[in-house]
């Protein structure tokens, strides 16, 4: 399952080693062994307690932060720590140090990490021809709601022929091979013991309150610092919002979540609730596990509805049928947010095209989108190298569903320092990164574990959305996905303060402080206006109209008008850029952002007979990063400062040079599904001037033309604004929260700059 796991079963007592004058000595009598089954081995570390030690730091080197073992988790005279393979991947040795206040002892003697068994083989992606094939069939009922059932194709039968027969049925909208659905990460502890539940003062000693200025090294609840829990709306956080957790069973009686509003439904066997699991318990504690302080939940007031989708044997993997059913049921049960820390992968049989789960998943995800329900999914733990992430069952950097779906908020991971978590996959569909490395979670039945993986990053984003929905319930999933592009740092890490600015939850003048780095971020937005007959203007016209060859005719009756493109081709063409700035003590400006084009999510639709549930569409875009640099004048006591700003566009851009166009992102593609219906009924496109034989060439042609436009804009950068307005060093209460300026830069390109918000409405 690719989970990093640390379990503390026993620690400090009154007896221990002789103390030095400055503080406790390092532990001794340290032992390490590999235990457990070959498919889920653990490194077990034991050592004697040290008198007066308040905590311990377990250090595996390689520039990674030590793991802090809190005194609240310690109840006996011996410390016993269990970690899975992922948590110590690549490490060959470790040391242990004692902590008392600000004092940290010298490290213990170095202990070698024993040899691990060979990691499991990646899950097979091709199905043998001599076995039956299970299909999952998605249909739309008379109420427009997706339903799902399974069908077994006997061994030796023509699977593709049966799939074709099913697809001819009017109510069938998708057929996929029944791929298994597995957890992305979690506290699968096997037979290993788990730390006892601390009580009373012990629990409080281990807790770090939200907003506390003291976040010690190795702290296993660093997510509250990274996501600034203390700055989120409280009443309490997430009150009145329902989060669905689609996973395995849950331990609702665990004291970390027992006082939260948690109910559970078993999708496979309704009424069965006797098979709780560690993974869903860990995921849920990230959202609502606040009450005893050891696992601070991000949305402690949210309601949790858990859906157990494990198979009939109670194993951690479930079926695609039950998985999709759970999504629809969660929507019908009133969920506002659906968290999925699970994934399905492609399973192929020969050249059959139904091997990937998206055809069956997408109708369920579309149903959630239509009902305004946010779907959040973990991106997986199959990035990095085999040495860093050896336990991945899916292979390296494969598409993980539903995270790969365009309407899902896909969440990768970060480390405490703000960098990308090493096992977070390298995928362009990832929308945002959140804490994923060595976090304490609730674990079965009454203990705790330190876990790594994007399974924990996803519920932190789900909980953040719940906290924001409680304050502003009016934003939509599509709006949030767009806002996220302008509320992350240069690594893609979520900045909740910037997101709250976008959603008007906090006043524009409120500072955006990143507790991880100490930086203060300032939102900005820029409109660049390319004049008529410029290269960008011409290529925009060719990219966003049905008949590019006629674009320069300037015919008022030309069909590519503002209704179709969102842009009147007789005007200048607008490029919008938004993001975040930092101004340092030397008046140097740095930052980053993203580019958005007028008509940037290019989509083309056709009228298609009996096509359900939506009109066929092909939509695409390129998410172009922007690097910002500049220099401001000294503050002269006026209402604003003047300065220059440089915008460099493209992947791997630098302050001095542009980058390259990133990978294409297709956000919707149901275009080809209409081809057979058009051919069978000899139905033309809506306008008889454009028959299907021509229309079906549009997607490929317009991707090519769109790529030319994006590359033209990127290659014309860096764009330099010489005289923009910026906030003064010391803002007065009556100062404007947004500083606007405008003018012209090279080649007649106009600009409008807003420092203080990302507001494209004021620029377009």
TrEMBL record:
Positions with biased composition (Pro residues): 116-125
GO BP annotations, alphabetical order: proteolysis
Keyword entries, A-Z: Hydrolase, Protease, Serine protease
Stretches for region Disordered: 13-37, 107-129, 180-218, 633-662
InterPro entries in alphabetical order: Peptidase_S8/S53_dom, Peptidase_S8/S53_dom_sf, Peptidase_S8_Asp-AS, Peptidase_S8_Ser-AS, Peptidase_S8_subtilisin-like, Peptidase_S8_subtilisin-rel
Annotated Basic and acidic residues bias: 633-644
Residue ranges, compositional bias (Acidic residues): 14-25, 189-204
Annotated family: Belongs to the peptidase S8 family.
Name of the protein described by the UniProt record: Peptidase S8/S53 domain-containing protein
Organism from which the protein derives: Phytoactinopolyspora halophila
Biological classification of the source: Bacteria, Bacillati, Actinomycetota, Actinomycetes, Jiangellales
